[in-house]
Each structure stands twice: as structure tokens, then as C-alpha cells.
Write a structure and sequence with these properties.
Layout lengths: L11 H9 L8 H20 L7 H14 L8 E3 L16 H12 L19 H10 L3 E5 L2 H9 L7 E5 L5 E2 L3 E2 H7 L3 E5 L11 H5 L5 E5 L15 H10 L3 E7 L17 H6 L4 E5 L10 E5 L1 H9 L1 H5 L4 H15 L3 H4 L1 H7 L2 H15 L3 E11 L2 E14 L4 H10 L3 E3 L1 E3 L2 E5 L8 H17 L6
Helix pairs in contact: 1-2, 1-3, 2-3, 4-13, 5-13, 16-18, 17-18
């Protein structure tokens, strides 16, 4: 009685020979060998499951495709039509062109990062961003870290090991990723001292811990992600700073978003600026580079030179410092503020400043291309990213009707380009405030493709 033998895949050497002429010049033998082995292993499993045999040439082609795929871009770009300007899930603030160009130059070339041009000796690490911060805020000195949580942790570290840090209970917030202010203080080696109540805290609440010498630092935290209303009270920044300084304590004010332009100019609530808080007596102010500043992820610290110098000497400061690409991009972003070009060239502020009339005109043009399947609608956009909670901006967009808004939204998200919108009243809403005008034609084409796919049943529902 004869039995059928299980087919065997081509050998690794045969697949290697077939693939060598297909891969890019300079590809190492080790990398190609690793991929060839994985292809042969997968083929062996496929054959064991009853699949048909494939030739060494076919497997060599698959190996070359896999190898090329390793260096293909993994992050897919998207058109943000949600109406949320600083969208955390979509990468927060898109960079201005100047920052992108500065980052590319810094990444692709050698540069005088820590070398003095005149002496030829090691000098201060690239200072452009910090010099801009000094000029923009009136601070004595500044420091750039890799994010604002790092900036807060370094500033709180000034209290010293076991030193007391006073925080009002209403400001013991949790920021993105589950990071909580009490945890930051604990990991910095300091001791949290809570004062006041959740909704009402006064400067007098800070006095006992300061008078008794239990606190070395007062931390104010801007509640960026939420807003309290009703029976509330917070201490006046100047009064609290005077009280802290009379007892030799340091005042650190974490602004979170840290606007460098007056938000009220655009019909939004006033957002405290670093300049205001320094003028009110804060010794250090910390804020983010990738929210209302509109640049790359970074933590920005401004304030007294002596305290900044102490932070620079902290061993953790090296672990939290940004690389050359981030420094270059932050510097280029801040330079736009000094040049008076922020509103025109920084995408976040360009979106905030866009007029409803201009947005309605763009929405009408897109709706005309899509015909009767789209309708121009008034919408409300938000800043997002924990900035200005509860504040909205009047906007316009297009509403898409269909048998299944969920299906249509999924089709748009899975398309190329990926379009991210929202559902309201059973319709897909695409808000134009968060779409770059240069992408309007691409957005219209994506809508036409998605509507056709959804009608034809080609889309796969969630």
C-alpha cells in the first residue's frame, strides 16, 4: 500500500539564488538570508495545510517583496476632517513648513550642535530655540525638554529629595496616557502636600505648610483637560507667588498648552501666557511645544536663570533632552512667532484664524463636486489636545447622507488618503476647519470614491 509523501518547499539556498537579483544593491547577505528562511518556513506550513507547491523563483520574489516592505513607511497620513484642531490620535499639531525643512536639514547633515564656530571647542548645545523663548516670554533663561511631563518633573525636582511640593486639590489632574501630577511628584523624589478643596482653593490654604517649613516648592497646574464651573475659586497668581517667596519657596506654573498668541483675538476664552505668569511672580513656567505653540513634541521651561541652570545640572536633564531634529524644528517654529508669521504659517493658528466665510466657500466648492450626495452645513470645531476645554469655533463642512453613516465613515477611513470625520444626526460630517485648503481637491475625490463604494456595497462595515 503506497502512501503519498508531503511535498517539500525549495531549499533556502534556492530561494536565496532566486532573490539575489531582485533586491536593492547593498542589501546584506544576513538580511536576505533571514527573510529567505522565514519565507521557506511559511511555505512549509502552507504545504502541510494542503497548499499547492510553489517554485523557488516564486518564493524568491516573495522574499524580495518582504525585504522591500521592511523599509516602506509604516505611518499612513490622513486628512483630519474631525473639526478637532489638535487631535491627539492624529499626531496633535501638524508642523509648519519651516519646522519640517529645519528638521530634514538637521537629520541629513552634520551641524554645529555643540561646537563653537570660533574656538573650535565644545560649546553650549544648540541655543536657537531657547533664545527665541527668552525673547518671546521675557524670561531670564529657557530650556527645551522632550515633552512637558519631563519639563514638569525636572522643575518639581528642584524641591529636592523628600522636599515638599504644595498643589491645590483642584489641580491634581491626570494628563494624557494616564500620567498624574501626584505620580510625577512622587517619581521626582518629592513629597506631595495637598491643600484646599476640589472646587475652592485660596492662597491662605498654602500658608500653613510654607510657615512650618514643610514645603520648598509651590506647583500650579493649569487644568487643560477640563473646566470647573459654579462654586469655584482659585488663588490669585500674584498673591500666591508673594506668599511663597516670603517663605523662600519656588513657584512653578505648568500651563500645559502655553499659548504665545492671545486666544481671545479669535473669539476663544483667554488662555494664560507664559509672559503673564512670569510677570505674576512664577519662577518657572512650563508648557508644551506641540499644542498651542504648534510645533513638535517638546517641553518648554522658561524663567529664572539660576533655576534653569540648576535643572541643566540635574542628571535626569540629559535623559530628558530632545535630539537635534526636535531642537531644530522647535527653533524654526518659535522663529515664526518672532517674525510675526505664526498666524500665516503655523497650521494650528492658521486653522484657528480661518473665518467662517472662507470655510463655507470651500465647503460649497467641495459639495458642488460631489453633487447631491453632499450638503454644506454649519458646524462647531474645537481646539482639542486638552487646550481650551469647552470652547468652540464656528465652522463649516459637508454632510454626507447614506444608508449607513458607519459604513461610509469606515470607507473614508480605509481609503487612500484616509479621511477621518465624525457622525452627527445620522450623517457623516467633514469639518473644513481642520483640513488644509491645499487638500480640498483630494478630499473631494476621496468623498466621491467612498460614496460610490458605499452605494455599491464594496465597503466593509465596522
Amino acid at each position: 500500500m503506497s502512501t503519498e509523501t508531503q511535498p517539500h518547499p525549495p531549499s533556502v539556498e534556492q530561494v536565496l539564488a532566486a532573490a539575489r537579483g531582485l533586491v536593492a544593491d547593498g542589501t546584506s547577505h544576513a538580511a536576505l538570508l533571514d527573510v529567505a528562511r522565514s519565507v521557506v518556513d511559511a511555505e512549509r506550513e502552507r504545504l502541510a495545510a494542503g497548499g499547492e507547491s510553489r517554485t523557488a523563483e516564486m518564493l524568491g520574489d516573495e522574499a524580495s517583496i518582504r525585504l522591500a516592505g521592511l523599509t516602506a513607511p509604516r505611518l499612513a497620513t490622513a486628512i483630519n476632517a474631525t473639526g478637532v484642531i489638535i487631535h491627539t490620535n492624529l499626531g496633535r499639531a501638524p508642523w509648519p513648513t519651516a519646522a519640517i525643512e529645519a528638521a530634514v536639514a538637521a537629520a541629513g547633515e552634520y551641524l554645529l550642535l555643540e561646537l563653537d564656530r570660533d574656538s573650535g571647542r565644545r560649546g553650549a548645545r544648540f541655543r536657537e530655540a531657547e533664545d527665541h523663548l527668552i525673547a518671546l516670554t521675557g524670561a531670564e533663561d529657557a530650556l527645551v525638554t522632550n515633552n512637558n511631563a519631563a519639563a514638569v518633573a525636572l522643575a518639581v525636582g528642584l524641591a529636592g529629595r523628600g522636599g515638599g511640593v504644595i498643589v491645590g486639590r483642584g489641580e491634581l489632574v491626570e494628563i494624557g496616557g494616564g500620567v498624574r501630577i501626584p505620580e510625577i511628584i512622587r517619581r521626582a523624589g518629592a513629597k506631595l502636600i495637598e491643600v484646599g478643596t476640589t472646587n475652592r482653593t485660596r492662597a491662605a490654604d498654602f500658608e500653613p505648610a510654607l510657615t512650618e517649613g514643610r514645603a520648598r516648592l509651590v506647583l500650579r497646574v493649569h487644568p487643560s483637560n477640563f473646566r470647573q464651573e459654579g462654586f469655584t475659586e482659585t488663588p490669585d497668581p500674584s498673591a500666591l507667588a508673594d506668599l511663597a517667596h516670603s517663605h523662600g519657596a519656588i513657584v512653578v506654573d505648568d500651563l500645559g498648552s502655553g499659548a504665545l498668541l492671545p486666544t481671545e483675538r479669535y473669539g476663544l476664552a483667554h488662555e494664560p501666557t507664559p509672559t503673564e505668569r512670569l510677570a505674576a511672580g512664577a519662577d518657572l513656567v512650563t508648557f508644551s511645544g506641540d499644542k498651542l505653540v504648534g510645533g513638535p513634541q517638546a517641553g518648554l521651561i522658561v524663567g529664572r536663570a539660576e533655576l534653569i541652570a540648576r535643572i541643566r545640572r540635574d542628571p535626569l536633564a540629559r535623559a530628558m533632552r530632545p535630539d537635534k531634529v526636535t531642537l531644530a524644528a522647535v527653533g524654526a517654529t518659535l522663529a515664526l512667532y518672532r517674525a510675526g508669521r505664526a498666524e500665516a504659517e503655523i497650521p494650528v493658528w492658521r486653522m484657528i484664524a480661518a473665518t467662517p466665510e472662507a470655510l463655507r466657500e470651500r465647503a460649497s466648492a467641495i459639495a458642488a463636486r460631489v453633487d447631491d450626495r453632499a450638503e454644506v452645513v454649519a458646524t462647531e470645531a474645537t481646539v482639542g489636545g486638552g487646550s481650551l476645554p469647552g470652547e468652540t469655533l464656528p465652522s463649516f463642512g459637508v454632510a454626507l447622507a447614506g444608508r449607513s453613516a458607519d459604513r461610509l465613515l469606515t470607507t473614508l477611513r480605509r481609503g487612500s488618503p484616509s479621511v477621518i470625520g465624525r457622525i452627527e444626526g445620522g450623517r457623516v460630517i467633514l469639518d473644513l476647519r481642520t483640513v488644509d485648503p491645499g487638500l480640498d481637491a483630494e478630499l473631494a475625490a476621496a468623498i466621491l470614491a467612498a460614496v460610490g463604494a458605499a452605494v455599491g456595497g464594496a465597503a466593509v462595515g465596522p
